[in-house]
Amino acid sequence: MQHHDMLVFVEVRYRRKQDFGGAVASVTRSKQQKMIIAARYFLLTQPQFAHYGARFDVIAIDKHINAPINWIPAAFLVN
How much is the pLDDT for 72? Predict the structure, then answer.
C-alpha cells in the first residue's frame, strides 16, 4: 500500500479463537522477519520505489470476541 511517500507493508491476521493469544500475538518475531525479507525483495526488484520510506502495519481480526478490526500502524520496527 502507498501512503504519500511511504510504502506500507500490511500483514492481516485472523483468529477464530484466542487459544494462543489472538491475532495480534500471532505476528511473531519470525513472521516479522519474513515480512522484512519480502519487503526487501520487493524494493530490490522495484527500483522505482527506492526513494520511498517503508513501514509495517498489522491488521488483526479476532472473531471470538466480536471486536472491531484492529489496525496497528508501524506495528514493529526494522533494525
Answer: 93
